[in-house]
Design goal:
It is built from 6 helices and 8 strands, in the order βαααβαββαββββα. With 202 residues, it is α+β, with helices and mostly antiparallel strands. The protein has a 4-stranded antiparallel β-sheet. A two-stranded antiparallel sheet has the order 1-6. α2 (23-30) packs across α3 (34-46).
Length: 202
């Protein structure tokens, strides 16, 4: 497991505030070099902490449409199967699972009541293992941080093996190829990966 240090956290916070900010500006603000910023960002992207840089829309500015949360009570043993099918439905913006009675929570953005009704009757009704559900319409968004304040120095984050993609539980085996770091869960994965790299160079 790797941990975020204070420099990582400060870089991420500036990128959260402004995804278009330049590495030079961040470097000047944090009193570090631009290559250091780039290296840190590239590392965090590779490790999966940074998924992408995207535009965040404000739904309240649109004349039509509203968010809906749907609380679903489904048969516990069928949750994974239901979630896999729900993932393919475009209107669903978010899917969450819970240990509560409402063990699946959906987040939708619908144009109007007609679209919501269509989703319920045409999509949800197909799932025989959904026992109950409740739709909650959001009248107005008062506070919704795009990135919750979860960054703390010392927070660990999961690392997956660059060969087999399994989560690395203990201390990872690190190899450096062309100035890029690679992490492995065991010596076997590291050896197979490095052998392939050497073979490709021939």
């Amino acid at each position: 497991m790797e941990e975020l240090d204070e420099t990582d956290v400060n870089i991420l916070k500036r990128l959260e505030e402004d995804g278009r900010i330049s590495f030079n500006t961040i470097a000047n603000e944090l009193d570090i070099s631009p290559p250091t910023v780039k290296y840190r960002v590239d590392k965090l992207k590779k490790r999966g902490l940074i998924k992408n840089f995207s535009v965040i829309l404000d739904p309240d500015k649109f004349q039509k449409g509203y968010f809906v949360f749907i609380l679903i009570e489904a048969k516990f043993q069928k949750i994974n199967e239901i979630v896999e099918e729900l993932e393919g439905i475009e209107i669903i913006q978010g899917i969450y699972t819970s240990l509560d009675k409402n063990n699946i929570i959906l987040k939708l953005f619908v144009e109007d009541n007609q679209e919501l009704n269509h989703f319920i009757t045409a999509e949800l009704s197909k799932f025989k293992d959904i026992e109950k559900f409740q739709a909650l319409s959001i009248l107005r968004t008062v506070k919704n941080k795009a990135n919750p304040n979860i960054l703390r120095p010392g927070f660990g984050f999961k690392i997956t093996c660059d060969y087999c993609h399994a989560e690395i539980k203990g201390t990872p085996i690190k190899k450096i190829v062309d100035n890029e770091e690679y992490y492995f869960c065991c010596n076997t994965c590291a050896k197979v990966f490095m052998d392939r790299i050497e073979k490709n160079k021939m």
